[in-house]
Amino acid sequence: MSNHARFLISMLFIAVILLCVVLTRFYFDVTKNTESYARENRVASIVRSFGNMQVFESMNGLCGILDASSAVVIEPEWTEILDITSDMVLVSGRLDGTMLIGGIDYEENVVLPFVFRSMEKLGDGYHVGVVDADGRRILYDRHYQPVFRESFESVSYYNKLLETESDGCRFSYDMSGDVPALRSAELACQVRTAENLTLRWKIANQVYLSDLSAADLRSINHHAQAYMQMLEQNDFRRLSEISNSEYFNNLEKPGILAEYRFENISRFSFSRRESGAYDFAFRLSYHIDAIPEAEPVSGRADVHFYFRRNAENQMILTAADFRFENASSVTEE
Asked: Are 166 and 150 in contact (CB under 8 A)?
């Protein structure tokens, strides 16, 4: 055998030895890491039970879930296990330095976003989640499905009666049936004048509320506010947002109110004129002080806003009626 051949065989032998050393070290490192991971995730104690599911705390202080055969179904990666349903596990954990609550399924996919600072039980299977970013409340049923398509500033529940409040509007619901039934509403209609007048109006007529939703009442309230602001500013460019072109002629500003300011709002009433049409009425006190060569006058008007549903089943403003009392001259000191 030549010297060159011997040299090649020696080099190949050395390479095989080095490869064996590397593989051996890699094997032992992996085994060591695996054993460490297994030790940290070993069950340290059982924290609580949900039916045949058990919440355990591991050696690393985090929580997971065991099934009835003591097999791990949720790895110990969570600060706390708050609730367990057939489809979801409510957990808390630290995300980007903030402790947040959310929901995962049994494949550990996120099914309820991690946006909540707390999740409170209200009774009869209902829960309310408090959003960490703005403190608003979202109501969930026992399966953590949202009950409403909106969030609230506050939510309370007692004896199957739910009360919500948001943006000056309060709604009460009877929760004893399959779906929430609206029982009463209180809304704040604000006129943004120098005095910032506010009309708080209530409705508890079950005949009306069987046809109207909270969204309908909010729409009526919003449109009334918007039209009053247009009246005060004598600017109707946004009229199409709350009405329909075929009704614009009924929404012109009354000539007698050419230059005026609102002073008081009272005597609210709400009634149904016909199926799907409603009359929102109140008394408005006004003051006119810019009529040329005349003394300032004040007076009152019974104001009626008429609403009905459009083709998209949305409440729109269709007419405005101002029934004026005799104006009286006043002298300002």
From this structure: yes
Architecture per CATH, domain 211-333, reads as Roll (3.10)
**What pLDDT is recorded for position 65?**
96
Q: Which of 289, 307, 286, 269 is nearest to 231 (CA)?
A: 286
What's the CA gap between 187 and 266, in Å, rounded?
Answer: 14
Sheet holding 53-58, edge to edge: 43-50, 53-58, 63-66, 72-78
When computed from its CA atoms, the radius of gyration of the chain, rounded to whole angstroms, is 34
- Residue 302 CB coordination number (10 Å): 15
Closest CA to 105 of 123, 125, 86: 86
Residue 184 has φ and ψ, to the nearest 5°, of -160, 160
CA dist 293 and 300 (Å) reads 22
In the chain, DSSP assigns E strands to 43-50, 53-58, 63-66, 72-78, 80-84, 89-95, 98-104, 110-123, 126-131, 137-140, 154-158, 161-166, 169-174, 181-191, 197-203, 261-274, 277-288, 297-309, 315-324, 328-329
Residue type, 237: R
Q: How far apart are CA 112 and CA 129, in angstroms?
A: 11
C-alpha–C-alpha distance, residues 56 and 45, integer Å: 6
* Start-to-end CA span in the chain (Å): 128
| Interval 269-311: pLDDT, tens | 999 987 778 999 999 887 776 556 666 677 888 989 999 998 8
User: Phi and psi (nearest 5°) for 118?
Assistant: -155, 160
Coil, helix or strand for 248? helix
277 Cβ contact partners less than 8 Å away, ≥ 6 residues apart: 306, 307, 308, 318
pLDDT tens-place string over residues 8-28: 444 444 444 444 433 333 333
Closest CA relative to residue 92, chosen from 53, 135, 62: 62
